[in-house]
């Protein structure tokens, strides 16, 4: 007797979940169990139906649908609210990425409600129309990814604007003349959003730093740093903590460590380098073999937990090397001093 081969289920689970959610969205007042849903999706195999049941249970866990009674589900609301991050498009519309769905949610420019690139937002998801993509509307900006922007100041008689050239910020900032803080017409400056009423197209802001005249090297470099959120100064309290660190390692601390000061050790760095954070050593052992040592600066000895220095270092995460300068992760006292593997 011939053995009947079992059919393999070749369904993409993510695509199936989106189809199920689409059916619920198109009929927000209806309830479905997995058998009814499988019939609507034209799925007849046992394994296919089981996959539908699993997908519906997961949608209920994520809060997009609710279980009315055992095995019977309904859309939680007409569309449903989700939290996600904004990805702006060139035409000022956007997509919302959320962990709750594999499909992106499209937001038209008029429905962004002042949300900007990278913002964390709450979105009301519209009922899906047949064969259409998911669409929605931003109902609340939960967290701004960025509140300061670089641009050129344009001053009129009674007001001013900071004109940005950042594609992710398509609106110029309205600056009351009382909040220019010394900025003059044509200056490159940094402004912070102070408010953005729903009925206003442009946000209101204040100048927080005047960088200088466009075209000057120092001004343009500082503008690049500000644009990408790279701080070129350390807060005073961080500098103060760094300054209080002793220049010499205590004898008690040295006794806890292996002393390699008499072993030939060298770094491979440019001639003008100051922050030597790793080094190599080489010596012949008693059995005639060669030992290569790799030495790393022990930054954690100086950057202690729950200090402003640790917080600032954590935020910076790494040193950034530009054409003519370095934006260090650590204050100079550490990066070029006590944490640098300098010769005696």
Helical element count? 8
Order of helices and strands: HEHHEEEEEEEEEEEEHHHEEEHEEH
State the helicity in percent bands: 10-25%
For the largest beta sheet, what order do the strands appear in spatially? Answer: 6-5-4-7-8
Tell me the span between the first and last alpha carbons.
87 Å
Q: Mean pLDDT, as a whole number?
A: 87
As for the number of domains, it is 4
- Give the percentage of residues in beta strands: 25-35%
By helix and strand content, what is the structural category? alpha+beta
The biggest beta sheet reads: 5 strands, antiparallel
Write down how many β-strands occur, each being a DSSP E stretch of 2 or more residues. 18
Rough shape? flat
Radius of gyration: 30 Å
The low-pLDDT segments are 3-8
Task: Give the arrangement of secondary structure elements.
Layout: H1 13-26, E1 31-32, H2 34-40, H3 46-61, E2 65-69, E3 72-75, E4 81-88, E5 94-97, E6 105-107, E7 120-125, E8 136-143, E9 148-155, E10 159-164, E11 173-176, E12 188-195, E13 204-212, H4 217-227, H5 236-243, H6 251-255, E14 265-266, E15 278-284, E16 290-296, H7 308-316, E17 320-321, E18 326-327, H8 332-338
Antiparallel strand pairs: 1-3, 2-3, 4-5, 4-7, 5-6, 7-8, 9-10, 9-12, 10-11, 12-13, 14-15, 15-16, 17-18
Helix pairs in contact: 1-3, 2-3
